[in-house]
TrEMBL record:
It comes from the Eukaryota. Residues 1-112 form the Ig-like domain. PANTHER family: IMMUNOGLOBULIN SUPERFAMILY MEMBER 2 (PTHR12207:SF25), V-SET AND TRANSMEMBRANE DOMAIN-CONTAINING PROTEIN (PTHR12207). It comes from Cirrhinus mrigala. This is Ig-like domain-containing protein.
Amino acid sequence: MFNITDHQAEITVDCVIDSQSSDKSAFEVTWFKVQEEGGPITIFTARRDGTLHSAVSNKNLLFGRPRATHYKLTVPQINPTDMGQYYCQVEEWLVLANTWKKLASDTSGELSIYVHTEGAFLQHDPKDLVEPVRVCLIRVEAELCWKMDLASQRAPCLLFPESIFVKSVME
């Protein structure tokens, strides 16, 4: 769990692709937010044709692609309405005979975001008020593994630097 007390706190949801079926594959990455009430809502999509689509009109989101297989979405200036679980879905596509064919699809684990606004009065005198501080608590419960062919005997997983764990899944 992370504690962020900066007024300008931000979160970044990374989606890292560990393997692909073809060098010519194109990826479509979609980020979702699950609120306490209701199901998941799409917040942003990096489409396979290279176009970007933000489904959130009241918030600026920052998209980045530092490598061909590393996509990231940053939600700047966190506030209580940003509370919820975030995750991404990756689809692998390939053009075969002039038509797109979906080769694979997988979903990451969820990144839980808790935002608390705290403040306290030291005395009843207004000059002694303490300015509220926005606190963002992040609990990572995410694991993203890509299935590979059984001949390779490996299933690489995404590592989280704060909790350093690897769990291979072979099916």
